[in-house]
Design a protein that fits this description.
Protein name: diguanylate cyclase
Order of helices and strands: HHHHHHHEHHEEHEHE
Enzyme class: transferase
Strand order of the largest sheet: 2-3-1-4-5
Shape: elongated
Structural class: alpha+beta
CATH class of the largest domain: Alpha Beta
Radius of gyration: 29 Å
EC number: 2.7.7.65
Organism: Qipengyuania benthica
Strand content: 5-15%
GO molecular function, one term: diguanylate cyclase activity
Helix content: 55-70%
CATH superfamily of the largest domain: Reverse transcriptase/Diguanylate cyclase domain
C-alpha cells in the first residue's frame, strides 16, 4: 500500500493559521488549491493579496471563493433568477390580461343594461334573457377584478422577495449581491465609480467587551450614520464590520471628502449601553478610497485598492481616510 502524503493538507492548514483564517471547508479548499497550483487563477489572486506582507482577510477569501469556487452554485442561482424572472413576467401578463378582461366584461354588461331599457313590453322573454346575461357578466367582471387583485398581490410578493434577497437583514443596507449589481449597472453604462471601503475601528473589542447584541446595535447605528452622511450615494454592507460607499464619479478627492465628513459625523455621536445608559466611548471608522473607470473587473480591482488604502489608514492610527 502506497504511503499517503498528508503534507499538502498540513500546509493548507498552516496557511490558514498564518493568515488568521478559520479552518472552514471553503477556506481549506481555497488554501489547498492556491498552494497546490500557484499559477491558477486562485493561486494568482491569493499571491496578489499576500505578496506585500498583508494577511488574506476573510472578506478577500470570500471574494476569491465567490469568483472561482462557486460556479455551480452561481449556475443554480442564475437558474433560480431565470425562473423568478419568468414567473414575474407571467404574473405581469396575467395581471394585464385579467384587468383587460374585467374592463371589457364590465363594459359589455353596461352596454347590455342600456340595451335592455329599449325593449318593449311585448318582448318580456328577451328582456329576461338579457337580464340573466347582465347578471352573469357582472358576476364574471367581479371575479376577474378579484383575480386581478390577487395577481397584483403576487407581483408585490415577488418584488419584495427580490428586494429581500439583495438586502442585509441586520442593517437594511444593500448586501454583497446588491453591491455587485449596482457596480455592474454603472460599468455597463460606462459611468466612472469612486468606491470607499470603511471598517469600524476596534470592533472586535466592542463585541468582546459588551457582547454581540451590542455589536449588532453598533453596526446598525454606523449603517444609519453612513447612509445619512453619504446620501444620495449608494451605501452597502460589504461584510462583518465593513461597509462600501459608491459614488458615480471619477473624482477621488470628492470621495475622500465625503467619507471624511461621514467619519466626522459618526465620531460626534454618543453611544451608550441601552441597559444602564453607560457611555461606550467614541465609535470611529477608517476608510480607503479608489476609482474605477473601466468594466466590472475594474470595479473589483478598485475595491482591492481601496482595501489596501484602508490598511494604510489603520496602520497610520485609524479614524482617517486614505486613497490609493
Amino acid at each position: 500500500m502506497s504511503k499517503i502524503d498528508h503534507k499538502p493538507g498540513a500546509d493548507a492548514l498552516a496557511f490558514l493559521v498564518d493568515q488568521h483564517l478559520s479552518p472552514t471547508p471553503e477556506n481549506y479548499t481555497l488554501a489547498y488549491m492556491a498552494l497546490a497550483d500557484p499559477g491558477s487563477p486562485i493561486g494568482r489572486m491569493v499571491e496578489a493579496f499576500t505578496s506585500e506582507g498583508f494577511r488574506l482577510r476573510q472578506s478577500d477569501a470570500d471574494e476569491i471563493i465567490r469568483l472561482h469556487l462557486t460556479r455551480s452554485v452561481r449556475g443554480a442561482a442564475r437558474q433560480d433568477r431565470t425562473q423568478h424572472d419568468a414567473l414575474r413576467h407571467q404574473a405581469l401578463k396575467l395581471g394585464e390580461a385579467a384587468s383587460s378582461a374585467a374592463a371589457a366584461t364590465g363594459a359589455f354588461a353596461r352596454e347590455l343594461s342600456a340595451e335592455a331599457g329599449s325593449f318593449g313590453e311585448g318582448e318580456t322573454r328577451t328582456v329576461e334573457i338579457v337580464a340573466r346575461m347582465i347578471e352573469r357578466s357582472q358576476s364574471t367582471a367581479s371575479d376577474l377584478d378579484a383575480t386581478a387583485s390577487e395577481v397584483a398581490a403576487l407581483r408585490l410578493e415577488l418584488e419584495t422577495a427580490r428586494d429581500d434577497a439583495q438586502r442585509d437583514q441586520l442593517t437594511g443596507l444593500g448586501n454583497r449581491r446588491a453591491i455587485d449589481r449596482h457596480l455592474q449597472r454603472l460599468s455597463n453604462k460606462g459611468s466612472p465609480r469612486v468606491v470607499g471601503l470603511c471598517d469600524i475601528d476596534f470592533f472586535k473589542s466592542i463585541n468582546d467587551r459588551y457582547g454581540h447584541g451590542v455589536g449588532d446595535r453598533v453596526l446598525k447605528q454606523v449603517a444609519s450614520s453612513l447612509s445619512s452622511a453619504c446620501a444620495p450615494h449608494f451605501v452597502g454592507r460589504w461584510g462583518g464590520e465593513e461597509f462600501l460607499v459608491v459614488m458615480e464619479s471619477d473624482d477621488a478627492a470628492a470621495g475622500v471628502a465625503l467619507l471624511d465628513q461621514a467619519r466626522a459625523d459618526l465620531a460626534k455621536r454618543e453611544f451608550k449601553l441601552r441597559e444602564n445608559d453607560q457611555p461606550m466611548g467614541q465609535i470611529t471608522f477608517s476608510g480607503g478610497v479608489a476609482t474605477a473607470t473601466g468594466d466590472h473587473a475594474d470595479s473589483i480591482a478598485a475595491i482591492h485598492r481601496a482595501d489596501a488604502a484602508l490598511y494604510r489608514a489603520k496602520a497610520e492610527g485609524r479614524n482617517r481616510i486614505c486613497s490609493d
